[in-house]
Amino acid sequence: MFLIKSFPSVKQLSHLTSLRVRLTVGIAAMSILGLSGVVTGICWQMQSILVVTHKNNTRYIAGRFPSDVEIYSDMVSLEEGTQRAIDNLSNPQTLLWVKGPQGEILAQSEALKMGMRGKNLVSLTDIPLQPELQRINNRYWLLCATKLVVKGVHLGEFYIAQDITKDQTMFLSIMSSLLLVGLIVTILMTAAIAWYIQNALQPLKRMSQTTKDISPETLGKVQIELENAPSEVKELAQTLQTTLTDLSHAWEDQRQLVSNISHELRTPLTVVSGYLQSTLRRGNNLTDIQREALETASSEAERTIQLLQDLLDLARAENGRMYFHLETVVLNELLTEIEGMVDQYPTPVKISLPDQLVKIKGDKNRLKQVFLNLVDNAVKYSHSSEPILLKLSQEKQQANIQVCDRGVGIPLTHQTRIFERFYRVDEARSRNIGGTGLGLSIVKTLVEGMEGTIKVISQPNQGTTFTILFPVS
């Protein structure tokens, strides 16, 4: 069995780097650091108070013991006086013992003699001179060693072992509780911060949703209204609103300019083209060079007229002035008619029709324009030996028309842009084969104007398939 590791998508990564996540993580991290510092400080302070209190008690015993031994030794022997001093200062939590210069035990607490507590304490050899906390046999002991000098005589070493297990255990329990409380507070605080930041960023999210689907046609209709937003966000929204309004005016002026220029130039160019064609028909005395020049001029004039007509069609569509004469169209008959109209093409065109009739609501002339544009485009980019296929089918409540070729194909990076105006996949090839660069853009406009959709599937050097879907009538 192979395990396939899934990697995060671009969308998931974008969520991880969003402003909301960054603010939440940043503020939560700072809050956690601050809270951790407070908890650590409290624990350290409690530990210091606990240990310092017991250390002071240990130092007090270490300082008092020699004087007690001296007092008792005035009444009894030195050894008995040492034992009495130990018995006087010992308690269940404090164990004392004295070792002679040779390491022999001279005196010790009763609990040590009986072996009830502090096993192995008297055998320790590395007890520090200053009080130090050590864990021995699962208990916490504060150990200290000092020289025992009585009346100027060095009797040996005096050892103190104070059992602070109860206090230390209580401290550790309190510290665990503080850590647990700190963890719970951190989780609640992070959730509260995330909720607050999410609400604080709602105006930006609403502004993003409002502007996400803006198109050139809707620039002037967008209204960015934010209530209860911070002043900085309101200022940003006002700036964006002003920019969108200016863009709308500029876009409208540009469309009007293109429409006016196209309309004004089409008439004189049509006259020029007519005179050129008339001259070619009647010019029997023209030289070959003159005829070639006139034919080139006539061809370019026709191409420019077609370009202007395409621009006018697009301008009308954008301004809502392109009207469709909708009627019931039998696509079987229309494609058969298209097949007859493209007989003169160098590349053969074949059609594939279903047995049943497929009917849609559409403008017959506009549909002819759509299919002729697609066939013309396929012929330009196909090999003359490979036929173009027009295939009609009906899938549920949709009519499916496909225009397939076996030409050069379209790279994947260009497929999302081929319906843009003047966009060409290969500029050099496009100039050689002619065309205005508006054909596919007009096709998309006409198809969508008749409530259809168009999409493309292509592979380089294997061909291209344009698929048009219309609801059946």
UniProtKB/TrEMBL annotation:
Catalytic activity, EC: 2.7.13.3
Membrane-spanning intervals of the chain: 21-42, 170-197
Keyword Transferase listed: yes
Catalytic activity: ATP + protein L-histidine = ADP + protein N-phospho-L-histidine
Domain HAMP: 198-252
Keywords, comma-separated and alphabetical: ATP-binding, Coiled coil, Kinase, Membrane, Nucleotide-binding, Phosphoprotein, Transferase, Transmembrane, Transmembrane helix, Two-component regulatory system
SMART domains to which the protein is assigned, alphabetical: HATPase_c, HisKA
Presence of keyword Mitochondrion: no
Chain segments annotated as coiled-coil in the UniProt record: 291-318
SUPFAM superfamilies: ATPase domain of HSP90 chaperone/DNA topoisomerase II/histidine kinase (SSF55874), Homodimeric domain of signal transducing histidine kinase (SSF47384)
MF term (GO), any: ATP binding
Domain (Histidine kinase) ranges: 260-473
Enzyme type, top EC level: transferase
Short name of any one Pfam family annotated for the protein: HisKA
Main location: membrane
A GO-annotated cellular component: membrane
Annotated protein name in UniProt: histidine kinase
Subcellular location: Membrane
